[in-house]
Amino acid sequence: MTDQLHATLKENFGFEKFRPNQEEIINSVLAGTDTVAIMPTGGGKSICFQLPALLLPGITIVISPLIALMKDQVDSLKANGISACFINSTQSAIEQQLLIEALRNHTIKLVYLAPESLSYLDKAFNDLTVSLIAIDEAHCISSWGHDFRPAYTNLSYLKNRFPATPVLALTATADKATREDIITQLNLQHPNKFVASFDRKNLSLEVRLAQNRIKQIIEFITEKPTDSGIIYCLSRKSTEEIADKLQKAGINAKAYHAGLNYEERSRTQDLFINDQVQIICATIAFGMGIDKSNVRWVIHYNLPKNIEGYYQEIGRAGRDGLPSETVLFQSYGDVIQLQQFANESANAEFQLAKLDRMKQYADALSCRRKILLSYFGELISEDCGNCDVCKNPPAFFDGTVIAQKALSAIVRLNQNESLGVIVDFLRGSKNAHIFDHGYQNLKTYGIGTEISWQDWNQYLIQLINLGYCEIAFHQNNKIKLTAFAKKVLFENHTVQLTKANQPITAPKPEKPA
Ligand code: ADP
Ligand code: ZN
């Protein structure tokens, strides 16, 4: 089997060896097992269904959210001599009929579909032998994810329609809650799960206070005058304003946002890809499906809404594996604005909790990469040495006792309370919530009166960032312990904390650019 997989990889895709997890994922689906594959962008997810499609007897259905990307994928498969097609509403009924005919007699092995197409193709499915169903960008099914697409919720239909066919769910960006949600909603049966490392060691991480951002950016660019970079901004207007200011400083920059017409966008994109424009000032509309390997830096002019988005955006730097820089500006003003957006959204609570997590990352006093990776469920034992906190660490003290008190309080409160209540409990507050729940009668109530409310708050954030506890944002932001907490509670594991001498969130609201 191994030989056959390698031969197919070489022959049809021209690659010598598999990337991490690809072979395991392929073996899992070939064995007929439902499978969840979590890999960072650029990790090589496509091969995980394209290669099995060649080996399996029936056809492979690929669900993909973006019709625009389907055409590219199909074209590149055809270029490799693999028969593939897409079916969508832009085609005529006759065209579709011909494609379905070709799928029926297996002259085409792989078909890309948008989730919206399933219902009207239902009849056509009757006489197809389906060997594999791949669901790309599977996080779109979850309203807990950052990219919810209502049509994705129809996909559970597939498991009912083809109960014997294995489903492969693929995604790059999913926190733990979203991952569980994918499995439940797709009705996957005892799936094998594969999580590839999200660590991109070549990306440096840095957070700066948002003061004189334009000046800081110009200085940053002047140090590396020929390197390509992307500046992500919150609003369309600010992409244009920033591009304008950079141009006035003699820098080759252009704006990109969804408000520009199609021609203008694709021209800007092409100029950037061909190194004729050095810098793009963009909203998050920029980047999806763009494969430029030598982006040397990414700057976030504004705080992103959530860590998934942030991670995906910085991931556009350094795809060639060479050292690349990322800088995030954080300002109190952005936090307020994002909180307003989140409050107005349909699932305000999730959005706010995700924003909180983003804010905590920006406020971090321990290795930022550890925090990022722990968000994706990955623990690294060593600090990374390639983030600003590692390079310029704050002073730490032995905070083991503080950590023990905080974690015990979380246990006493049955992992059922949010951060603020835990702090009130530790400080022996006499407020209504405490008394209503009878918390004043529990052991460890008031064991931390000597530490201020503010300090407790920060220590708890540090404990979350260190991976000892986590915020269950789909459950009212309750603080839960991780498996790691046992080390502190029962094994006397030492915890280093730091006392911040400044407010941990950026101090001054700044006027918009
Ligand atoms: P993803 O969908 O995870 O973002 P892709 O499937 O588009 O990633 O793959 C990213 C790039 O890596 C593509 O250019 C692809 O051809 C390449 N790639 C995938 N698997 C391998 C491999 N085993 N060896 C070398 N290159 C690979
Ligand atoms: Zn670090």
Rg for CA atoms: 25 Å
Task: Say how many strands there are.
Answer: 17
Measured between the Cα atoms of the first and last residue, the distance is 59 Å
Query: Stretches where pLDDT falls below 50 for ≥5 residues?
Result: 501-513
Structure ligands: adenosine-5'-diphosphate, zinc ion
Strand content: 15-25%
Helix content: 25-40%
Order of strands side by side in the largest beta sheet?
3-4-2-5-6-1-7
Major pleated sheet: 7 strands, parallel
Q: Label the overall shape.
A: globular
Number of helices: 21
Question: Please, what is the average pLDDT?
Answer: 89
* Structural class based on helices, strands and sheet pairing: alpha/beta
Describe the structure concisely for a colleague.
By secondary structure, this protein is an alpha/beta fold. The protein is built from 21 helices and 17 strands. Helix content is 40%, strand content 15%.
Write the SSE topology.
Blueprint: H1 2-13, H2 22-30, E1 35-38, H3 47-55, E2 59-63, H4 67-79, E3 84-87, H5 93-104, E4 110-113, H6 118-121, E5 130-135, H7 156-161, E6 167-171, H8 176-186, E7 192-195, E8 203-209, H9 213-222, E9 228-232, H10 236-248, E10 253-256, H11 262-273, E11 279-282, E12 295-300, H12 307-314, E13 324-330, H13 332-344, H14 348-362, H15 368-375, H16 388-391, E14 397-398, H17 400-412, H18 419-426, H19 432-436, H20 453-465, E15 469-472, E16 478-481, H21 485-490, E17 496-497
Parallel strand pairs: 1-6, 1-7, 2-4, 2-5, 3-4, 5-6, 8-13, 9-11, 9-12, 10-11, 12-13
Antiparallel strand pairs: 14-17, 15-16
Helix pairs in contact: 2-3, 13-14, 17-18, 18-20
The structure holds adenosine-5'-diphosphate and zinc ion (ZN).
Organism: Flavobacterium kingsejongi
Enzyme class: isomerase
Protein name: DNA helicase RecQ
